[in-house]
Amino acid sequence: MAEKETPEEEPEVAAETGETKQASNDLKVVIILHGNRTMVGVQSTDCDPVFTTLEGDLAAALSQVPALVESANAKWDANPRYPKAELPEPPASATPARNQPAPSSAKKQQPSFF
């Protein structure tokens, strides 16, 4: 019996055959309301999120979501991920040698309190 391919398997097949991998259609929109300010974020699978802040209530934020999604899709088409940071190598830590006390031949006994 032949197995039916699911949409999740299609990008893997495309990667194996060397074809261009298509962007996922999954999209997450987050709206955070705080007083008269609103933060709206959009994220897609394997892409960095895009955020913006707006003035106004929920209705104003919802009216801006289509434009933000369109802007995010254009950004993701050009560059889905932020460039990887090139950090300098940390300097080699110079750990000082520990001075260990010399073993004493005569151990002092502590007084017994009990």
Question: What does this 3D model show about the protein?
Answer:
This protein is α+β, with helices and mostly antiparallel strands and 114 residues long. It has a domain at 23-78. It has helices at 10-17, 58-78, and strands at 27-34, 37-44, 50-55. A three-stranded antiparallel beta sheet has the order 1-2-3, with helices on one face. Strand 1 (27-34) and strand 2 form a beta hairpin. It is elongated and about 80 Å long. The termini are far apart. Mean pLDDT is 75; it is low at 1-23.
Strand and helix map with partners:
Blueprint: H1 10-17, E1 27-34, E2 37-44, E3 50-55, H2 58-78
Antiparallel strand pairs: 1-2, 2-3
Helix content: 25-40%
What would you call the structural class? alpha+beta
Number of helices: 2
**Unreliably modeled segments:** 1-23
Q: Rg, please?
A: 30 Å
| End-to-end gap | 84 Å
Shape: elongated
Strand content: 15-25%
Write the element-wise H/E pattern from the N-terminal end onward.
Answer: HEEEH
Q: Please state how the strands of the largest beta sheet are arranged side by side.
A: 1-2-3
Q: On the 0-100 scale, what is the average pLDDT?
A: 75
Largest sheet composition:
3 strands, antiparallel
Number of strands: 3
Compact summary:
It is built from two helices and three strands. The protein has 114 residues and is α+β, with helices and mostly antiparallel strands. The radius of gyration is 30 Å and the shape is elongated.
Q: What are the defining features of this structure?
A:
114 residues, alpha+beta, 3-stranded antiparallel beta sheet, 2 helices, 3 strands
